[in-house]
Amino acid sequence: MAKKPNALVWLLLSAAVVGLDQWSKAWVLASLPEFQPVKVIDGFWNWYRTYNTGAAFSFLSQAGGWQIWFFTALAVGVSGLLAWWLSRTPRGEWRVALPYALVIGGALGNVIDRLVHGHVVDFIQWYVGDHYWPSFNIADSAIVCGAVGIGLFGLLDGKRRAKSG
To answer: Where are the domains of the chain?
Structure first.
């Protein structure tokens, strides 16, 4: 019996996320001033070049430097685990493969920043009035979308299996 193809081809999406993320950050570093908002949509969205040495919401950003290596190791480890799971996932199971690929691409995009710059470049800033969401980047967006997909599809698949079982 022939072995069915696995979902490792979805790593091409991960590579596309890394490419788009790194391209956008190169544009930011070459074009945007540091720490000065550049309006995109008034009252909602700025380009705002800033840096994060920590994780989400600047968690551990003032930890003294060790956190860069910790988050790099964590991202590489999680990406490796997700890639291994992709190797065991049938290619057609896009509800599993798509979110895994997004998380891998986002995690590795931010790893590149940590290794090259010692911090992650953030530049998308959303706000309403005086309330600002912390700045983020394309890699962060891919991680969040992938994590939501893992949770949502996992929940929906669990309910579907419970109904059929």
So the answer is: 9-164
